[in-house]
Amino acid sequence: MASGVRTLPCMTDVTPELTHLRLERPSEGVALLTLDNPEQRNAMSDEMTDSWVRAVDHLAADRSLRVVVVTGEGSAFTSGGQLDWLASEPDASVDALRERMLPFYRAWLSIRRLEVPTIAAVNGPAIGAGLCMALACDLRFAAQGAKMGVPFTRLGLHPGMAGTFLLTDVVGAAAARDLFLTGRLVQGDEAVGLGLVSRVLPRETFLTDVLATAAEIAGHAPIATRLTNLALRDGGPASLERAVQWEAMAQPITLATDDLQEGIRAAREKRAPRFEGR
After folding, report:
1. Pairwise CA distance, residues 88 & 84, whole Å
2. Has the keyword Lyase been applied to this entry (predicted)?
3. What is the pLDDT of residues 31-88, one digit of tens each?
4. Which residues contact 242 (CB under 8 A, 6 or more apart)?
């Protein structure tokens, strides 16, 4: 179990059996997914991939869920796909390899199924497909010294895991070209400047700090938070008019909630609101 993480009772059915992956509940409404194969730098093994899908399915059914945090055990976030797996079928046809890669991509990108905010807590190196999975999350925080990059072409590979979309969406076309074509790794202030991560936090208190932010988000009105999160995905609305149309539907939905009335009462009474998601 991650240091300082107190697991709360699960609000759904029994937690699925997981391999190379842990699912914990450090605070109300917050789920913590820890990639747990530190001996292989949390590489995305078949066992971990299968467990990831089961965990996401489990979380998608949990109506009490408000935030998900993803991190890695040990010194790495994840080194991405296993190299021996990538090189295991040199004689396979392109069609056969494509049929192998698509389920792998879709498994890890299933984190996008969750409507609640998702946070990648990049505790150490996030490389290749591992960084792409972090990019599929809504927010990214990095520990000091954590290196990130997409060195696919250095291995003779085209980028995968929707990286050409996700990285471009997050850092813009020019920076994405730089990172993909050079394969260089970035960290710290440069990663923040590129928009690759929102914050760089001290390594000593990293997970505690990220979980505190997750708990803060979980304390906000869940309906408003989910709708806002959905509005901002994939670069936000494609045009001003689409933004106006979405907001003219989504804001009235929140105006009709009990949570809005509670939020107004709490502001007038100068106390913390108690949102119930209705």
Report:
1. 6
2. yes
3. 999 999 999 999 999 999 999 999 999 999 999 999 999 999 999 999 998 777 666 6
4. none
Choosing among 1.20.210.10, 3.40.50.2300, 3.90.226.10, 3.40.50.10380, the CATH entry for 21-218 is: 3.90.226.10
Bridge partners for 186 per DSSP = 148
Beta bridge pairs of residue 139? 119
- Distance between CA atoms of 96 and 114, rounded to whole angstroms? 30
Residue 70 to residue 77: CA distance in whole angstroms? 9
Q: Which residue has the tokens 């190299």?
A: 83
Residue reference for tokens 């509670």:
262
Closest C-alpha to 81, from 109, 110, 106, 104? 104
What span, in angstroms and rounded, lies between the C-alpha atoms of 96 and 174?
A: 33
139 sits in which H/E element: strand 139-143
What is d(CA 20, CA 217) in angstroms, rounded to the nearest whole number?
27
pLDDT tens profile 103-118: 999 999 999 999 999 9
- Strand partners for 44: 81
Rg (CA), the chain: 19
Decide: 147 and 179 in contact? Cβ < 8 Å: no
